[in-house]
Write a structure and sequence with these properties.
By secondary structure, the chain is mainly alpha-helical. It has 6 helices and 2 strands, in the order ααββαααα. The longest helix has 19 residues.
C-alpha cells in the first residue's frame, strides 16, 4: 500500500500538485525495500515490482515515468476506471509526459534508459 502511495505522490509532484513534496516521496520510496515480506521463502511478484521501481526511482534522480498508472495497469484497474477519468485525467497526463520526450535525444533524457522506459510504456497507452 505504501508503494502505491509513493507512486501516486511521485505523479502528483510531476503534476505540480501543491501538497506533494519530493521529500515525502523520497521517504516513502526509501521504506519500500524494508517492507518486502517473504512467504514460503519467496517474495510476491508485486512486491518485487515495487522494490525494483523504488531502486529505479533512486537511480533516475528521483524520477519515474507515470508510476501510478503503471501500478494501475499491473493491478488491472484501468479497465474499471471511469471513462471521464481516462479521457480528462490520464490521457492528458500521458500526452504531457510524451511531450517531455519529444525532441530530446535518448542519451540526454535522464540517465539514457529513462527515455526508452517512458516511450515504450506510454506508447502502449496512446494508441
Amino acid at each position: 500500500m505504501k508503494s502505491a502511495a509513493a507512486a501516486s505522490l511521485v505523479e502528483l509532484i510531476q503534476d505540480d500538485h501543491p501538497g506533494a513534496t519530493k521529500e515525502e516521496a523520497l521517504r516513502l520510496m526509501d521504506q519500500i525495500p524494508s517492507l518486502t515480506k517473504k512467504i514460503a521463502g519467496k517474495s510476491l511478484p508485486i512486491e518485487k515490482l515495487c522494490s525494483r521501481k523504488a531502486r529505479k526511482f533512486h537511480s533516475q534522480n528521483h524520477r519515474l515515468f507515470l508510476p501510478a498508472m503503471e501500478l494501475a495497469y499491473v493491478f488491472g484497474s484501468l479497465s474499471h476506471t471511469p471513462r471521464g477519468s481516462l479521457l480528462h485525467t490520464l490521457l492528458p497526463r500521458i500526452d504531457k509526459m510524451l511531450a517531455t520526450l519529444e525532441g530530446v535525444e535518448p542519451a540526454e533524457y535522464g540517465n539514457g534508459h529513462e527515455y526508452w522506459d517512458g516511450t515504450s510504456f506510454s506508447s502502449s497507452f496512446s494508441k
